[in-house]
Structures are given as structure tokens and as C-alpha cells.
Design a protein that fits this description.
- The structure is a single chain.
- By secondary structure, this protein is α+β, with helices and mostly antiparallel strands.
- It has 2 domains: 261 residues, Zn peptidases (Aminopeptidase, 3-Layer(aba) Sandwich), CATH 3.40.630; 74 residues, RNA polymerase II/Efflux pump adaptor protein, barrel-sandwich hybrid domain (OB fold (Dihydrolipoamide Acetyltransferase, E2P), Beta Barrel), CATH 2.40.50.
- Helices cover 23% and strands 29% of the residues.
- Helix 1 packs across helix 6 and helix 6 runs antiparallel to helix 7.
- The longest helix is centred in the middle third of the chain and has 17 residues.
- It is globular and about 70 Å long.
- The protein starts with a strand and ends with a strand.
- Bound molecules: zinc ion.
Length: 340
């Protein structure tokens, strides 16, 4: 895998990451993943990624807008933008790649001699992450989940990276931030891009900005606001550049109060215990209490059977809700976050 862009020379470089892909209809073909490099003099390198999952759209829209609206003379340093990192998945509007069925964000550090998705992960680990001092990775709930737009972060520790993370969060001033334990998140899953960004010494932040395979307008506004203030804080984007990009003077205002939440309790996640179709009795953004009814799972094969009640194990703010009614055992129906 290689690229058509120059990472080292000043200028706006628009091109592709190229994944060799020799198939029946194209013997010497490659998959062309769009990438933009905006470099202007000395300064930190920021990697902005979207589309790690192919059915999440706030990242691709916000990062496309960034490259189209921001002029090079508003940049100091280097910004590397990959709006749809798992491009085959993006083109298929799918969380996982249609080529190998792999979830890019469960395959880091990847394999140089692996399948297409593993090769993309390997290139990110070996080439893009070592370039980056800071990474902002834009996610959403994809097809199966809808999120209340929120920035996500591991709890900043006493390290230099932890200190920088805390300052960046303060500077971004998102309406809502959800902290999680980096070691315990995703049931111990560590094959995620954030883990390898941190191993490479980069400061990593991400967020969930909507979902349901749509573009959430509030989430998109939050991404553009956060990216602007993130880059301004680092001195990589001028105030004029931020105004061009985010199109609101709010990016220059004093930070508003950020509401902080934690999602470390396993009981905050609600899973289906039986198959069927789920009728929720809660709404995204609602505050629920422990023991409250979350909804009912109906039996798809016996409509006359009493549906199974599902209740919340904990109380908290509903930050995520399943979009699909049909469920199998183990599907996530939603999850909560608790004020901290
Ligand atoms: Zn995602």
C-alpha cells in the first residue's frame, strides 16, 4: 500500500491512499482512498479521520467541508485528512468491509500481508499514526445505533498526553463529553485505532456524533465546532480559518460549560436477552432511573405470547439507542452514561 500525496512539502495535496486489489475486472487495480494533506511551515501534525466505519457520515461530511473551505494560509503545521478511511465499507454503506467482512476498528495494528482491511490498518499504524502528534477520529452509531452527539475520551491521567488531552477538551468545550476507561472499554477490546494512536505517542480524541446511517445536523455542527477549536488551540488553524470552516462566531466565543459523563459501569449497557423485536419505552436524551422499564421484546413467531419486559439495571442519561427493532440475543439495545 502506498499514497499519491506528498506529506513533507508545503501545499495542499489532494490524492489517494492506494490499496493493491487485483480482481477479475481489474488485474492491476487498486482501491483509491481519498486523502488530503494541508501543510504550511513548521507546527504539529494533526490526523483527522472519518469513515473508519463505512455507515457513519458526520465525519465524511465535516472533513470534506474542512478541505474545501479552509485556505492553506490559515494553517500552520500539517493537517492530514482521511474522510472515509475504510473506503470499501463507505462505498457499500456498511460498518464492515464488503471485501473481507472485517471491522477496521477491530483489526489494528493490521497486517501488511493481510486482507484489504488489515492492509489499511497496517498502513495507518506504520505510516499515518507515526506522523501524527494529535488525532481526532469522528464516529457515529452507524446503521444499528443512534447516539446523542458527544465527544468521547479516556479519562486523562497524570502523563503529559493526559494533561494535553484535558486542555484540548477544555478548549473544544463540547456540550457533552463521555469519559471511559481505555483499558476496560469495549469489554477489553484493544484492537482499536485509538489504542495504537496512543501507543505511537499521539494525543487521541474521538466522538459519536449521531447514527442511523444519516447525517445528524446537531452532530455535524458539533464536529465542525470541535475540530475548529481543537486546531485553534494547537495553533494549527487561525481564527479566520475557523470562521471560514465552522461558519459561526461561536467557535471564537468563551467556552460554554461542558456536561461530563462516565460510561464505565457494565450495567449501563442494555442487551437483548432473547430474540424478537424490541419496542423501547425510552427516548434518546432521556434521564432514566434504576429498575425503570426500558421496553418489551416481542416473540417474532408467537404474537399471542406476552412480550418480555426489559428494565434498566442502572439509572442515567440515555446516550445511545438501537435503531433496528429486530434483535438477536446479545444485541445492544442502548446504553446510558452517568454524570461525573
Ligand atoms: Zn464508528
Amino acid at each position: 500500500m502506498d499514497s499519491t500525496v506528498n506529506f513533507e512539502v508545503d501545499g495542499v495535496h489532494l490524492g489517494h491512499l492506494r490499496v493493491p486489489h487485483s480482481v477479475h475486472r481489474s488485474a492491476y487495480g487498486h482501491i483509491a482512498i481519498p486523502i488530503a494533506v494541508l501543510k504550511n511551515g513548521a507546527g504539529p501534525t494533526v490526523l483527522l479521520t472519518g469513515g473508519v466505519h463505512g455507515d457513519e457520515y458526520e465525519g465524511p461530511v465535516a472533513l470534506s467541508n474542512f478541505v474545501q473551505k479552509v485556505r492553506l494560509d490559515e494553517i500552520q503545521g500539517r493537517v492530514v485528512v482521511v474522510p472515509a478511511l475504510n473506503y470499501p465499507a463507505f462505498m457499500a454503506a456498511s460498518r464492515v468491509s464488503p471485501i473481507d467482512g472485517i471491522n477496521l476498528n477491530r483489526t489494528f495494528p493490521g497486517r501488511k500481508d493481510g486482507s484489504v482491511t488489515e492492509v489499511i490498518a497496517d498502513y495507518v499504524t506504520r505510516v499515518l499514526l507515526p506522523l501524527a502528534d494529535f488525532v481526532f477520529d469522528v464516529h457515529a452509531g452507524g446503521s444499528s445505533l443512534q447516539y446523542l452527539p458527544s465527544v468521547l475520551s479516556a479519562l486523562p491521567d497524570e502523563s503529559d498526553a493526559g494533561w494535553q488531552t484535558a486542555r484540548l477538551i477544555e478548549a473544544m468545550a463540547p456540550e457533552r463529553i463521555i469519559y471511559f476507561d481505555g483499558d476496560r472499554a469495549l469489554s477489553g477490546e484493544d484492537r482499536v485505532i485509538g489504542n495504537y494512536a496512543r501507543k505511537n505517542g499521539a494525543v487521541y480524541l474521538c466522538g459519536e456524533f449521531g447514527g442511523g446511517s444519516t447525517v445528524n445536523p446537531d452532530g455535524l455542527r458539533m464536529v465542525e465546532h470541535c475540530v475548529s477549536r481543537f486546531l485553534m488551540h494547537l495553533g494549527v488553524l487561525s481564527a479566520a480559518g475557523a470562521l471560514q470552516y465552522a461558519e459561526t462566531s461561536r467557535v471564537l466565543d468563551q467556552p460554554v460549560r461542558t456536561l461530563s459523563y462516565s460510561m464505565d459501569e457494565p450495567g449501563l449497557f442494555l442487551f437483548a436477552q432473547r430474540p424478537g423485536f424490541f419496542a423501547p419505552s425510552f427516548r434518546l436524551g432521556e434521564v432514566v432511573r434504576q429498575g425503570q422499564l426500558a421496553g418489551h421484546i416481542y416473540d417474532s413467531t408467537d404474537f399471542w405470547k406476552t412480550p418480555t419486559a426489559v428494565t434498566f439495571e442502572c439509572g442515567g442519561l440515555v446516550v445511545c439507542q438501537r435503531t433496528f427493532a429486530q434483535v438477536e440475543v446479545g444485541d445492544c439495545l442502548g446504553h446510558l452514561a452517568q454524570p461525573c
